[in-house]
Amino acid sequence: MKTLRTYYDPLIIILAILSVSLLILDSLAVLNLSLSPFREIDVLILLLFTYDYINRLIRADQKGQFFKKNIMDLVAIIPFHSVFAFFV
């Protein structure tokens, strides 16, 4: 029986490709990320990445080391998260 861990990496890769694809299509004016259903898809992906990062951080034995090794993950989610929108 396969575990959830078996599906983790492929799922993260698919979500990352989907997220980048949406961003590219939005920049090419093929679709508009501020309109439904693309907005909801984008927000869902962001929430999944945020949950994933926080979950891995909580489970990490050495939080400082985790932070250093995964700084790009954090940088990728912060600018787009609505909680941090006031910085923009």
TrEMBL record:
Subcellular location: Membrane
GO cellular component, as recorded: membrane
Membrane association type: Multi-pass membrane protein
Keywords, ordered alphabetically: Membrane, Transmembrane, Transmembrane helix
Transmembrane segments: 12-35, 41-58
Top-level taxon: Bacteria
Residues annotated as signal peptide: none
The protein, known as: Ion transport protein
Natural source organism: Alkalibacterium olivapovliticus
